[in-house]
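Recall the central idea of this unit: under ordinary conditions, the amino acid sequence of a chain determines the structure it adopts. In this exercise we apply that idea directly, starting from the sequence alone.
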Amino acid sequence: MTFQRTTSDNADFQFLTREFDNYLIDIDGDEKDFFAQYNQIYLEHVVVCNTNGKAIGCGAFKEYETHVAELKRMFVLPEARGNGIASSLITELESWITELKYTTCILETSNKLVNAIALYTKFGYQVIQNYGQYANVESSICMKKTLK
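Accordingly, the structure predicted from this sequence is:
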């Protein structure tokens, strides 16, 4: 398993996020257009995970405010799940985030993504009041972690 630090212009990242968007159609339903407007943005900090030359997972972050990074676009192909890839992606992303001197990491996920919520909880993220554009979105769960 290898990790590539790149941007959202990366072809593998674009492939994975198209797969992610297709996956989310069933989950987000009528809210998919609301979420799409916040996900179709240029991201300067992207990590793509490859195994045997194939892109199998990704994640990204952007600055939310001074010293606060927001995790975005975390996804592992369904056929690659259960192999620790998401955990490795979070570790790689948090490493990069701390290198850039961020002290806090926040994220938003769907309340239907129970496995994702469990993973973030395992990594020390705690549920917080929904922030920003997610403030009144009942299907959103927002989480936060103070980084060391």
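The longest strand covers residues 54-65.
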